[in-house]
Each structure stands twice: as structure tokens, then as C-alpha cells.
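Section 5: illustrative case.
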């Protein structure tokens, strides 16, 4: 009798098909069933693993990448981690341009994974030294010198970003809720997740409501509500909130937009960890707050889904640093300080 050999799975096979977690406390609060897509369970620890795989596979299919080629991107960290892992697995090199205000944990992970790091100043998008613009410039130079080619991943405008969520994340949510999903909400970094999932779900059911959860300091809430790009305040959430409309988001209409401050989002992060054992980062707190707002908008008895982007250990030096939070007059639970 022969024993069947194990399936020969590689890293790319582990990206996606993440669980949908029932969020008890906020569900009980609103009378709705609120679920979080556990994207922190991807191999690179975030939703950006999907983006990385989609962009690299699209570049391969277009003949833009050869073995040993270089992938460049400007990112606050998670996309760079995903790109570097997939690049390592598929035989490419990665060059990641990171703003200096990215968490120390993310920078340490990128160094550990072997990415070539370029640190950029934390400046507005209008500056030529913004990390996205620096990545574009470096990519143009490397494309001339790399024998096996170099590409700029350009996650904000690359249609492969939206497409991977259209073909994977959206259908997964539909199947995991058995088609009962009434609303989807998340924040925007590049726009790929919100736009891709929205288009996918609306094809299944045009009545599904789509909402934006926008952190303070971002311009998209005012863009959707008032028709102008304007921002106020600031947030410690990383990887979300922009001062422009990303190409991946351009043609998306949302039903609702909510502006979420850190004072609202952070207690949700701490309560989720303390009472439900789920560790998430600040962007997930913004998303959960958006899900609560959408649930209150729709009323009890609806099914709401959002994204749990990454895990809290990526932000230990910020989210769980009492001195950091105290200096910014942000809330923290007693158990962190004890």
C-alpha cells in the first residue's frame, strides 16, 4: 500500500483563502453580524501579499520580468514585505523605498528578508522626495542598468492590484458569507482592495453597500462627501490614507464614507486583542470602526465584512508604547501600562 505524497505547495499557493472571523463585541454592539477577513494570516502577514503576487504575476505574463530581475516599490512596509517574499520565492530582487515614519518593526522585517532598502523623508506627496516618486525615479534608472530588467510595481495605479482583489478577495467573501453579505467597508491605501472587492461583490448583488473608512489626515472622505481633496488632523495608522485619488480607485462610487479618528479606532484594537484574542494593527481599527458605522447606518440584522489588514506586533513600538501614545494624547488601556 502506497502512501500518497504530500501536495507540492510553494509560497504563492499560501496567499489568499484567509478565514472570515466573527467579531463578537462589535456585532453585539450593533445587532449586525460583523466579520473581519483575516489577511494577517497570509504568509507575509498582511493583505498586501495579494497585491504583491498579483503585480508580479501580471509583470511576468507581460514579459516585463526576467529571472534575476528587480522589482522596485515605494511603500510604508507591508507591500514591500509581500513583494520581497514573493520575489525571493520566484527568483527576483527587490528594492523598497520606505518613508522614515514607517514602523521600526516593518523596517526590521524588510532587512531580515533581504530587501535593498532606501529610506525616504516623510514629506507630502507634492514633494519630489516623497517615497512613491523616489521609487519611480530609482526604477527608471535601474531599468537602464539591470541586465534582467527592472520594474516599478506602482501599486497605486497598477490595475493588477485591483484585479487580484476582484478575482480572489471578493469571491472569497461572497462564498464565505454564502452570499448573505450586505455591506463591505475598508480604508484606502492604494485603493486596490476597496475597488476590487466592491466591483466583485456588486456583480453578484447590486444592492450590496460599499463604504470607505478614512483616517484623519487623509483627503478621501472630503473627496467623496464634499467633492474636494482636503484633509485635517492626523493618524498613527500606517499604509492607509492618501492626499490624492489613486488610479485603482478612480471609477469607484461608494455608498457611504466615514471619517475615523484614532480615539475611536484604538480602543477597538485593544478590546479585540484583550477580549477576543485577535491582534491587529491600527488600520484594522479604522476598518472595524467603519464597519460599526456602516452597521449603524443599515440597522440591525445585516452582515458586514471588513479587512483585518495585518497584526499588531508590526506596531509594538507605537500601538503598545505607553510613552508614544501618551505624548500624542491617545487612549490606551490600563493593562498596557501595568
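Designed sequence:
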Amino acid at each position: 500500500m502506497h502512501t500518497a505524497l504530500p501536495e507540492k505547495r510553494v509560497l504563492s499557493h499560501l496567499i489568499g483563502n484567509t478565514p472570515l472571523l466573527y467579531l463578537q463585541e462589535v456585532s453585539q454592539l450593533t445587532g449586525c453580524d460583523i466579520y473581519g477577513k483575516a489577511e494577517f494570516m497570509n504568509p507575509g502577514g498582511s493583505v498586501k501579499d495579494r497585491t504583491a503576487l498579483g503585480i508580479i504575476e501580471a509583470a511576468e505574463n507581460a514579459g516585463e520580468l526576467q529571472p534575476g530581475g528587480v522589482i522596485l516599490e515605494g511603500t510604508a512596509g507591508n507591500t514591500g514585505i509581500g513583494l520581497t517574499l514573493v520575489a525571493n520565492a520566484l527568483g527576483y530582487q527587490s528594492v523598497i523605498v520606505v518613508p522614515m515614519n514607517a514602523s521600526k518593526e516593518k523596517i526590521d522585517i524588510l532587512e531580515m528578508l533581504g530587501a535593498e532598502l532606501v529610506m525616504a523623508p516623510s514629506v507630502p506627496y507634492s514633494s519630489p522626495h516623497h517615497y512613491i516618486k523616489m521609487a519611480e525615479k530609482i526604477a527608471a534608472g535601474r531599468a537602464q542598468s539591470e541586465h534582467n530588467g527592472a520594474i516599478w510595481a506602482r501599486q497605486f495605479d497598477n490595475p493588477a492590484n485591483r484585479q487580484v482583489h476582484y478575482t480572489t478577495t471578493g469571491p472569497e467573501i461572497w462564498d464565505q458569507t454564502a452570499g448573505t453579505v450586505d455591506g463591505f467597508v475598508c480604508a484606502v491605501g492604494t485603493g486596490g482592495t476597496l475597488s476590487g472587492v466592491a466591483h466583485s461583490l456588486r456583480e453578484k448583488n447590486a444592492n450590496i453597500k460599499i463604504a470607505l473608512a478614512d483616517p484623519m489626515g487623509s483627503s478621501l472622505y472630503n473627496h467623496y462627501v464634499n467633492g474636494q481633496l482636503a484633509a485635517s488632523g492626523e493618524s498613527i495608522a500606517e499604509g492607509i490614507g492618501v492626499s490624492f485619488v489613486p488610479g485603482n480607485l478612480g471609477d469607484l462610487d461608494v455608498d457611504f464614507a466615514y471619517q475615523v479618528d484614532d480615539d475611536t479606532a484604538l480602543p477597538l484594537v485593544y478590546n479585540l486583542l484583550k477580549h477576543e484574542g485577535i491582534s491587529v494593527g491600527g488600520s484594522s481599527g479604522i476598518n472595524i470602526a467603519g464597519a460599526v458605522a456602516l452597521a449603524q447606518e443599515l440597522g440591525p440584522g445585516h452582515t458586514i465584512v471588513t479587512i483585518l489588514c495585518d497584526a499588531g506586533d508590526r506596531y509594538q513600538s507605537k500601538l503598545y508604547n505607553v510613552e508614544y501614545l501618551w505624548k500624542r494624547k491617545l487612549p490606551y488601556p490600563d493593562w498596557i501600562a501595568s
